[in-house]
C-alpha cells in the first residue's frame, strides 16, 4: 500500500459499486419477450430515467411510455416521456405524474406488454391520495414517516395503504396486459414489493400491519389518514389476485451485487475486504457508533480482521429527527463514526448513497478520518453538538469533506466503506 491515497481508493470503491448497478448492463440481461400488441414503458424512482434510456437502447421494436424521476435526475429519451417531481416530500407534479401513469396503462389488452422500471424514491414521486384524502394528507404522512426513524419497509407498508397507485394498484390498472417489473432494489432484503412501495408488485402486508407499525413507531398522522387506514377502502390487492397471474418481477440490481463488485475492485488494488452485511438497518448514529467500534478494534488490536482491510456494509439506516439541521442518513452515520474514531490513526471512511444524493442537499455522503473531529473543532464546529442537532451536512461542509459525485442514475441504497491501514 505504498503511495496509497485513501480517499481516491474509497472513491474508486464507490464507483465500482455504482457501475455494477448500471442500467445499461442490467436491463439488457432482463429484456422480456416481445408482445403481439403494444409495448408500454412506465416507471418511477431516482434511477428510472436512466433505466428508461437504457431500455430504449436495448429494445428492438416500437415502444411508448412515461416515467417519473426526481428533479435534476432526468436523462434524454426519444420515445419515453420523462416527468420530474419532488423527492423526498411529494408535490403537485408528482400527483399529475401518478395520474398520467394510470392513464397510460388504461384500456390495454391481453396482447399488450407493460414494462415497469422501478427504483428507490418512487414512493415520494408518485403521490396518489386514495379515497377522500388529499395531496396535503400524503405530504403530511411522508413528513411524519421521514421524521419517525421507522425502517423503509415499515414506511412503505404504511404508504401503500393511503395510495391509489402503490401496493400493486398500478399493475392492477394495467390488466389484462402482462406487466414485467424490472426493479433496482434499495430495500434491505431486496423485497421488490417494498421498492417504491410496490406500484406494480403487491405483497401480503395488510392495513392491520400498517396500523401496528404506526403504533410501534408512534407516528402521528392526520385524523383523515387514520380514518382511511381504519376502513376497508385502504385494503391493497393481494398477490393471489388473478389480475397478477401473468406478471413477472425481476430484481436487476441490488446492494448485494454492488458490494461484491466493490470487493473485487478492492482486491485488484491489493486490499483484502470483508462485508459485514448488505442489509443493515437501524438508527444512523447508532450504526455509526458500532462501525466505529469495529474499526477501532481492528486498528488497535488487529481483530476481528487483520489490517490492512476494507470493511464494507450496505442497507439503509434511518434518522429520527430531533432538530431541523441539514443532513442525511449517510452523513449522520459518518459523523457518529468520526466521533467514535477520533484520534485513532490509520482509519479512513466513506459513507454515501449510491444514487448520489444523501438527504435534501447535493452530496451523496462524506469522508472521515482520525482528524475529522479535530479539524471541525479548529473551524469552530462542535461535532457532538452537530450530531445532536441532525446537522451533519454543516459539520462536514465546514472541513470540506462532503462527497459530491452528482446523480448516478441508479439506487441500490447506501455504501459504507471503512479502510483500516
From TrEMBL:
<dbReference type="GO" id="GO:0005737">
    <property type="term" value="C:cytoplasm"/>
</dbReference>
<dbReference type="InterPro" id="IPR039760">
    <property type="entry name" value="MOFRL_protein"/>
</dbReference>
<dbReference type="InterPro" id="IPR038614">
    <property type="entry name" value="GK_N_sf"/>
</dbReference>
<keyword id="KW-0418">Kinase</keyword>
<keyword id="KW-0808">Transferase</keyword>
<dbReference type="GO" id="GO:0008887">
    <property type="term" value="F:glycerate kinase activity"/>
</dbReference>
<feature type="domain" description="MOFRL">
    <location>
        <begin position="310"/>
        <end position="414"/>
    </location>
</feature>
<dbReference type="Pfam" id="PF05161">
    <property type="entry name" value="MOFRL"/>
</dbReference>
<dbReference type="Pfam" id="PF13660">
    <property type="entry name" value="DUF4147"/>
</dbReference>
<dbReference type="InterPro" id="IPR037035">
    <property type="entry name" value="GK-like_C_sf"/>
</dbReference>
<feature type="domain" description="MOFRL-associated">
    <location>
        <begin position="10"/>
        <end position="229"/>
    </location>
</feature>
<dbReference type="InterPro" id="IPR025286">
    <property type="entry name" value="MOFRL_assoc_dom"/>
</dbReference>
<dbReference type="InterPro" id="IPR007835">
    <property type="entry name" value="MOFRL"/>
</dbReference>
<protein>
    <submittedName>
        <fullName>Glycerate kinase</fullName>
    </submittedName>
</protein>
Amino acid at each position: 500500500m505504498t503511495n496509497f491515497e485513501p480517499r481516491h481508493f474509497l472513491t474508486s470503491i464507490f464507483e465500482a459499486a455504482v457501475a455494477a448497478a448500471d442500467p445499461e448492463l442490467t436491463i439488457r440481461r432482463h429484456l422480456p419477450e416481445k408482445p403481439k400488441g403494444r409495448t408500454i414503458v412506465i416507471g418511477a424512482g431516482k434511477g428510472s430515467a436512466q433505466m428508461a434510456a437504457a431500455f430504449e437502447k436495448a429494445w428492438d421494436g416500437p415502444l411508448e411510455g412515461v416515467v417519473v424521476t426526481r428533479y435534476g435526475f432526468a436523462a434524454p429519451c426519444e420515445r419515453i416521456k420523462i416527468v420530474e417531481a419532488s423527492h423526498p416530500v411529494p408535490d403537485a407534479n408528482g400527483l399529475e405524474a401518478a395520474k398520467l401513469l394510470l392513464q397510460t396503462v388504461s384500456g390495454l389488452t391481453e396482447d399488450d406488454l407493460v414494462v415497469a422500471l422501478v427504483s428507490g424514491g418512487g414512493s415520494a414521486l408518485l403521490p396518489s391520495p386514495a379515497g377522500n384524502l388529499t395531496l396535503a394528507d400524503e405530504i403530511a404522512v411522508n413528513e411524519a414517516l421521514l421524521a419517525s426513524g421507522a425502517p423503509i419497509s415499515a414506511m412503505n407498508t404504511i404508504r401503500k395503504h393511503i395510495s391509489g397507485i402503490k401496493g400493486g394498484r398500478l399493475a392492477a390498472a394495467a390488466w389484462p396486459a402482462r406487466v414485467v417489473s424490472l426493479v433496482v432494489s434499495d430495500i434491505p432484503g431486496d423485497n421488490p414489493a417494498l421498492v417504491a412501495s410496490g406500484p406494480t408488485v403487491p405483497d401480503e402486508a395488510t392495513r392491520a400491519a400498517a396500523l401496528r407499525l404506526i403504533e410501534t413507531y408512534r407516528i402521528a398522522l392526520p385524523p383523515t389518514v387514520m380514518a382511511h387506514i381504519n376502513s376497508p377502502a385502504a385494503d391493497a390487492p393481494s398477490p393471489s389476485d388473478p389480475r397478477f397471474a401473468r406478471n413477472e418481477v425481476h430484481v436487476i440490481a441490488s446492494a448485494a451485487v454492488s458490494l461484491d463488485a466493490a470487493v473485487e475492485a478492492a482486491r485488484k488494488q491489493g486490499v483484502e475486504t470483508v462485508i459485514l452485511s448488505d442489509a443493515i438497518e437501524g438508527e444512523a448514529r447508532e450504526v455509526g457508533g458500532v462501525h466505529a467500534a469495529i474499526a477501532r478494534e481492528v486498528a488497535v488490536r488487529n481483530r476481528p480482521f487483520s489490517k490492512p482491510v476494507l470493511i464494507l456494509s450496505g442497507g439503509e439506516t434511518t434518522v429520527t429527527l430531533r432538530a431541523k439541521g441539514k443532513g442525511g442518513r449517510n452523513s449522520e452515520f459518518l459523523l457518529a463514526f468520526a466521533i467514535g474514531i477520533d484520534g485513532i490513526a490509520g482509519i479512513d471512511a466513506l459513507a454515501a448513497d449510491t444514487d448520489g444524493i444523501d438527504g435534501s442537499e447535493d452530496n451523496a455522503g462524506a469522508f472521515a478520518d482520525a482528524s475529522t473531529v479535530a479539524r471541525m473543532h479548529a473551524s469552530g464546529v462542535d461535532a457532538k453538538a452537530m450530531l445532536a442537532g441532525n446537522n451533519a451536512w454543516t459539520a462536514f461542509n465546514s472541513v470540506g469533506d462532503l462527497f459530491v459525485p452528482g446523480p448516478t442514475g441508479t439506487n441500490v441504497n447506501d455504501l459504507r466503506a471503512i479502510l483500516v491501514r
